[in-house]
Design a protein that fits this description.
Blueprint lengths: L1 E6 L4 H13 L4 E6 L2 H9 L4 E4 L1 H10 L2 E5 L7 H4 L3 H9 L3 E5 L16 H15 L1
Parallel strand pairs: 1-2, 1-4, 2-3, 4-5
Length: 134
Amino acid sequence: MNVVVIDGQGGGVGRQLVEGMKKAFPQLTITAVGTNVLATQAMLKAGADHGATGENAVLVACRKADVITGPVGIAIADSLWGEISPAMAAAVGQSDAVRILLPMNQCGNRIVGVADVTVGKLVQCCLEEIRALL
């Protein structure tokens, strides 16, 4: 199974996702795609198998993914303080992959009806969803 983790900014959420997945599911192939080089580097240091950066990397990775995960902003154009282009958001939304998006109330996007929980708890919820897919 090919899991694509997409993140931006400093890659902190993506780093935690990669670390958690590699620990819980070492058999997964994890492709880290950062909107910037810092995010990609953080996810590679966490143990991602492959890494790439930028808009085209998101477009290509989304075509090859079985699962796409990251903060919900990866599916919203101009999110993550402008790091998500409309093409990136469309690639995430139009992918045939299962999307497991973490509800982050940041960058001008508010997800109502969702409790404000820590990133660590969101990562655990993501791991539970991946376990159900396996």
